[in-house]
User: Fold DUF417 family protein from Nonomuraea terrae.
Amino acid sequence: MGTCRATADRIQCAAAVTLRYGLVLNLLLIGRLKFEDYEVDNIRPLLVASPPFSRLARRYGERRLARFIGVSEILIGALIAARPLAPKASALGSLAATGMFATTLSFLATTPEAWHQRRTEPKLSPAGQFLIKDIVLLGAALFTVAESLRNIRQL
Assistant:
């Protein structure tokens, strides 16, 4: 019995590391893309269909807004990665990621391009398929919040 528990604990530990640093890698790489013109073009339908983001895009411009989002994603990723040295900063980064992924999931409701329009039942379009992965990233962010908070209590 003890071996099974030890094995499960090792697998859970590996899963936690994979979730945390997979989330970090996603945030860093996707944040970096926001500095490319083609990525600004890719996210344009999401930005213009979202009431708060469309206002920000009109006020600051799509390219500047995309770069602000990119810097935010990179900063959030760096904070989450800092857990071994700064669990409070990591918890803050994970909370920010939770808010960010909840926001991007709202694009499923505000972006007409997220759904195939000529179907009798709802079907995700390629844009919707791109967005739906954020449910898993939201779960990873919530997991890393809890893990960081537990680590703070152990200090």
